[in-house]
Amino acid sequence: MLTTLAALEDLMTRSSADSKYMEMVKSGARFDHAYYANKHMPMVKSKLGDACESYTVDKGLAGGAPGAPPLYVGMCHIFCDSVEVFQGAFGPHAQEIMADIPSYTDLAPVIQISEVVVG
Question: How far apart are CA 70 and CA 58, in angstroms?
């Protein structure tokens, strides 16, 4: 299964893609977690339609060492059946989705597409 924002599926019968959008922590940067979770991501889900099987939203709390800040202030996982399914659904709406980023942050997202191996 591929993630772009989350989806757990029977991996015995198919693979999936996970697309991750991560916002690096930067001193003085703005990130509105409520807007991201309650407005932006539901909008993304509505644009992707059934191609987005599910998604998750994470809020960074800490780094690996005691007292260390998180590397990412926020992250989402979008789960789709494949990279092609994600790209086919995201592409037509990419401009509108990306144009909403300034509504919740002044950071540039880091994007990674992964294959869910266990989950």
Answer: 11
